[in-house]
Amino acid sequence: MAVQVRRLVRVYGDHQLGVRALDGVDLGFARGSFTAVMGPSGSGKSTLLSCVAGLDRPTEGEILVDGENVTFWNEEARTQLRRERIGFVFQSFHLMPYLTAAQNVALPLRLAGRKADPRLVRTLLEHVGLAERAGHLPAELSGGQQQRVAIARAFVTSPAVVLADEPTGALDSATAKDILRLLRGAASDLGQTIVMVTHDPVAASYADRVVFLVDGRIAGQMEHPTVDAVAGQLAHLDQLVATGAAVTR
């Protein structure tokens, strides 16, 4: 497994009376898999990503990255984890406005104190269809192009997992599909593990599996999702919670 979470609990506030953002989550993400995480607002989706990324410490449970327990690492070690073994793709692209596309892609390596191989950077930009835009600043790129740069940046350290938080939320539908095809191809062709939070059944249909969260708990899972199946399940999440059903197709 690229990433595993075991009995993961995150409580904000008092341990007994506080908000349980995660409540005993057990999940594994295989290498080269593409998983979508869905659920209503407040269901624990972003908290799950934050814990996996080492941005938030769980109250209970364990997090393993490439089989290594990283739960209790200190802040310095967790910062290194994020720089070298976790890739990020956000709804807002978070590119440095004064750096070119190529420089933005290379930035994680520079922050980690490593020299960026120009051939690697070019290969990644070619993979996302932007080799000819390598010298352009973010302001000279469209929203879809900026997200492609962000995806290339997420891949540059060959991370254990790429965490994508609503990566198509700021894009039009046609551009969003291009981005989703890139993520799908990265999992299928490059063996990259991807965990994507989304509210969109269309986005979820590009994944191998959908995990549904409600009130910090796994309410069900769906293999080989389709748009209609995901949309139908989202409309009946309360039934999944009641039955504890695991949905497969």
UniProtKB/TrEMBL annotation:
Residues 3-240 form the ABC transporter domain. InterPro entries: AAA+_ATPase, ABC_transporter-like_ATP-bd, ABC_transporter-like_CS, ABC_transpr_LolD-like, MacB-like_ATP-bd, P-loop_NTPase. PROSITE patterns: ABC_TRANSPORTER_1 (PS00211), ABC_TRANSPORTER_2 (PS50893). Keywords: ATP-binding, Nucleotide-binding, Transport. Pfam families: ABC_tran. The keyword ATP-binding applies. The keyword Transit peptide does not apply. GO terms for cellular component: membrane protein complex; plasma membrane. SMART domains: AAA. One of its GO terms (molecular function) is ATP binding. This is Putative ABC transport system ATP-binding protein.
